[in-house]
Amino acid sequence: MDLVEKLKNDVKEIEDWIIQIRRKIHENPELSYKEYSTSKLVAETLRKLGIEVEEGVGLPTAVVGKIRGNKPGKTVALRADMDALPVEETSDVEFKSKVKGVMHACGHDTHVAMLLGGAYLLVKNKDLISGEIRLIFQPAEEDGGLGGAKPMIEAGVMNGVDYVFGIHISSSYPSGVFATRKGPIMATPDAFKIVVHGKGGHGSAPHETIDPIFISLQIANAIYGITARQIDPVQPFVISITTIHSGTKDNIIPDDAEMQGTIRSLDENVRSKAKDYMRRIVSSICGIYGATCEVKFMEDVYPITVNNPEVTDEVMKILSSISTVVETEPVLGAEDFSRFLQKAPGMYFFLGTRNEKKGCIYPNHSSKFCVDEDVLKLGALAHALLAIKFSNK
Amino acid sequence: MDLVEKLKNDVKEIEDWIIQIRRKIHENPELSYKEYSTSKLVAETLRKLGIEVEEGVGLPTAVVGKIRGNKPGKTVALRADMDALPVEETSDVEFKSKVKGVMHACGHDTHVAMLLGGAYLLVKNKDLISGEIRLIFQPAEEDGGLGGAKPMIEAGVMNGVDYVFGIHISSSYPSGVFATRKGPIMATPDAFKIVVHGKGGHGSAPHETIDPIFISLQIANAIYGITARQIDPVQPFVISITTIHSGTKDNIIPDDAEMQGTIRSLDENVRSKAKDYMRRIVSSICGIYGATCEVKFMEDVYPITVNNPEVTDEVMKILSSISTVVETEPVLGAEDFSRFLQKAPGMYFFLGTRNEKKGCIYPNHSSKFCVDEDVLKLGALAHALLAIKFSNK
Amino acid sequence: MDLVEKLKNDVKEIEDWIIQIRRKIHENPELSYKEYSTSKLVAETLRKLGIEVEEGVGLPTAVVGKIRGNKPGKTVALRADMDALPVEETSDVEFKSKVKGVMHACGHDTHVAMLLGGAYLLVKNKDLISGEIRLIFQPAEEDGGLGGAKPMIEAGVMNGVDYVFGIHISSSYPSGVFATRKGPIMATPDAFKIVVHGKGGHGSAPHETIDPIFISLQIANAIYGITARQIDPVQPFVISITTIHSGTKDNIIPDDAEMQGTIRSLDENVRSKAKDYMRRIVSSICGIYGATCEVKFMEDVYPITVNNPEVTDEVMKILSSISTVVETEPVLGAEDFSRFLQKAPGMYFFLGTRNEKKGCIYPNHSSKFCVDEDVLKLGALAHALLAIKFSNK
Amino acid sequence: MDLVEKLKNDVKEIEDWIIQIRRKIHENPELSYKEYSTSKLVAETLRKLGIEVEEGVGLPTAVVGKIRGNKPGKTVALRADMDALPVEETSDVEFKSKVKGVMHACGHDTHVAMLLGGAYLLVKNKDLISGEIRLIFQPAEEDGGLGGAKPMIEAGVMNGVDYVFGIHISSSYPSGVFATRKGPIMATPDAFKIVVHGKGGHGSAPHETIDPIFISLQIANAIYGITARQIDPVQPFVISITTIHSGTKDNIIPDDAEMQGTIRSLDENVRSKAKDYMRRIVSSICGIYGATCEVKFMEDVYPITVNNPEVTDEVMKILSSISTVVETEPVLGAEDFSRFLQKAPGMYFFLGTRNEKKGCIYPNHSSKFCVDEDVLKLGALAHALLAIKFSNK
User: Fold this and answer.
1) pLDDT tens column, C51-69
2) Among A257, A275, A297, which residue terminates a domain?
3) pTM value > 0.80
4) C111 is in an annotated binding site
């Protein structure tokens, strides 16, 4: 029996076990950095499988499991993120979140369950492994600021890793379909803050003021011009001004106006070109009117998630042995799996869960987000298959 | 001795008395509708002058004094507003405000003192009066919403009034200079609120949202086009967008965006044309993108302050007997003295207090606003002179 | 019989004569600098009245008549412009223009006829004149560039003039009503040209170009912001972008874009503030994108037309003896009578010709513009009356 | 010897012959629909090679050659376009264009030479062909309006064709590199014209006009918002406003304003969404101000060029046997080879000619565009190889 057949049979035995783990985590969602019970469940489950476990790797709730093969080989890391979102669950699944205002609305509960399933398969087929399989259970992917990957990497989680793989469940693709692409697959999220310092005054006498709202209008228009005119239109790219706040009263022109937003790009040149234009636009337009300004970009944001082309070609062939694999467009969301890919070649890929019949049609982050649990076994299978294949390269 | 000489002499006697009243009020500023101690001081002072006093006219802190001439004649109303502003005084006068965060930054303390000075002169020259002089001490001019004039009028303060006059101290004109104009002199302040209801979503996928901030940009640009293209450029007119609020997080496009501001005009046709355009702009631009919207104009705002042309011609001649009188440009601030002028012909005029030597250079509403007290006697004199002249018409 | 009664009777005798002169000129309209037959008619008519005539004063078609009083007195200049407009007349008067594409659409034919009528009255009442009455028949007011006034002034036409008056017929006011105002009455027309030099390229690859049209959009939006935010909203002021030209083909982004327009203001500070902002806006916004630019303002344009306040007060009283006189809003059109007013105190005023019953309802410069000829005698009368009164001051 | 080796040897023999043909055509460039001498040269050359020739296929200058295999098989079409551009050549090659203002600035001369080279190879290896190889020499690709492909198709050129291939030389890729991609590779060029009909008037009185330039500003801003906010930012997409014309004089607001430009997209849904928004934007914004408008999209423009995914996979493997093959980003230029791909599966691909050492660095359509002639044999080889492989499928 070939490897795929073997693993397919094995995963059938534990399908329900995987689902139950997922539901338990779904009922007890925990926000970024507070994944205490989830990480405890992971550590216990790994230990029950006889896997070497290290807790608190870089972060209190970070867990790493290690399965060593009987012969030398490559070190393959498999990653699952664990945190939930500040969303009030409105879907009516029986295992609905029991925590007010917190929900696994992005499927990280399924990621943990699928990787524990993969761990089970790997332990059961330990003889097929070479080198080391490193199971990374990462907190705080949704944090969007520092993020959980960075501290784990600083704590050495990627030392000696030859390949790294990560799966994300997504309602953008049909149930059971794997979707990925070579090169950049997810964007870097350059959060920005623009503050215009004008000089307030009476609403009836704008000429005696430096009107920060009017200036912000000109800046915002020019910023949207960056997308429409300055960036290569073939490049996936977007700037969104997502907050604007200024003023208190209808007859008082305020002193200051503040805008925040995000620049999403998949290319470092495009990224720096956009930021340069933004700085020039803000300072030049403020200069016209004698206003002063601040333009701040959040530092050390998640990098661009770049799939290694050769690895991706190979993985797509491997995965096509267990399901349909499609080449997807890039996504302008962001993922700190990108930091792992900066340390070792690997691939980040989506596992589709969209199933009209089962009502699994809502986008990730929606309060009605729901998952076709039939796909979970495929995730576990993919983890195990890649671990075995690449550890033996 | 002619009337002017007589009154000039009389006012010299009480100049210091007027100044002390002003300083007492300045030290104890009271916000709109809470002018308790100021109105008590007014009522007591009027009674000491033997003047018939009515308190609580339309508002608890409103005070009206009546001086009746010995022979029939016209009823002339003289008005002074009493409220202070939510401003922290930073000027270093010895009689600085003793109330944290409250200051007579618009000179209403001087208005009360000057009208009490005028009352003194009228009592002293009672024989020269015909008909009735009605002294209106009005709360809450700065309120900007309902305002104190309206309830006083509804309580009958303007019943039977033939002429009405009001003075406002202003650092826009040189000390002692009277400034006014025929026809519209101050604007109506149409406060507006625009709410754009879009559909929020992820900052990286604007195409899946109805972006209320982007829509508000287009609306704001078109609104400023009303001033630049749709309103007669000879007409004093301004629209100011003074607040804009939308969004909470750099990567989330919000559902809604809210803007507030003010339309200032001196002409009813211009006013309704501007409001029509604003409604059309907001609904049309929202319509392009499938957003819904609300456009609200505050109701029953202060009317346009319109000086009666004939009365103004006559008053300018009278005042030129006691000081320099200039014809001023209209001002796009607002005043609820306009409501009194809707009930009887009259005139609203400024008394200059700008004096570089004395450091009286800061604009009204400034935390450093200060008054050249030498002009106060002129205000009292003007009140008395107009009362006598017009009561005898 | 007083002066006004005398002149009223005299002008009745020549009313028809004035109307016939007007109609003759109306049938033979001549464009700026080409008023050959009109100026010939003027010279002949003056000579027939025994008036001393000088032709070619500064311009070939300029004519000056001089009537000297018997006793010393003031020199009073009265001015009428003579040129027509490049407009195809579509009104159906029997004395319609006989010249294709040229029409007296702004009433300069009536100005000539009224001043010749005034000359007749002055000759007839020569004894009432002191000093000298100087009749200025000026070419090329409509030229908008150099204009006819400047060369005539350089040729000495205003040497020794004490007062100068000019009438303009206008359908903005009711028939027979005089309208004027103290101070600035007409604007200075700062014509501007903005050229943005970008770098063209393919319409599908804007990022490889410096798109002059996009840049011009930002500039134009900011320019309209000058009106809405930077200039005192009480000041009559307008900027109009009246031409924009760029590009030849739908798939080629051009190199350059050119805009023209006009700034109209009644105040030198406002004027220079607007021009400064325009320069800063164009250079700053071009600077953002690496474009270069030119901002040119036409030189030596017609100045602001400023009526002398004292003279205006006096003239309004004089004119009220022959008709209704109203104080008008300023007009943002331009007039090179302004150059005469820079040389001597005087007044420029409108004579209304709007008459619904007679169908005289079209605005000046309209191809259907028509005049209520009953008012022409009033214009002649006004010229004579002012000449007599001010020459005797 | 395998097929590739055989063809490589054969093409060496005729490399110079191919280059000479190219240079002859380069010296005698002919604009769209006027490729008389080029098509004569093609017909003669084909006949000399013993190939069945048909001239005037749908267009006078269109030429089709047919090479029939000895055994049944597939019909494979190979296409080369023939027209030059209205560009004055400024490159200093010895075989520079001899026709003023006309130049082969896009390499269509090389396309003809490479396809004639391919024809030579196919005739020489006729025994390896099955079915039919149809050589399409197409006029007027650069025309951008109707284009040459459409009439040839209507004349039956694609009847019975099983596969179709087209090569385009491009300085965007290194010399000798083949570049292509599955799915959409070039855009559909929706040329648009927007006319705003307002109501002109005097530059000083915009409120009496419906200002078409101001309205066009609002429209243009909103149009660029389509790119920035309404279209999926991952989608290659651009709108360029490339011409704007309005107005004649600095003091006259014109009646009308006209804009032209192009929408480039690779997806029919995106394309129709953009056009819908454009219509809504123009009509809604015109509606605000009472202007009327026209929005016209050029009809029957070149479709999206869509490479058949399966054929592309196969071709990329075949071509990798003779040179480097890279997967390229889509290009937002347009090509009427797209019409051939609507009739039969096939692939359009680029052949790189960028060679710094040889100074071949200028973009297509540049007056300095020049080609590294060493690559021409590769193009001939590719034509022959694909014809043989796919005719035998």
Assistant:
1) 999 999 999 999 999 999 9
2) A297
3) yes
4) no
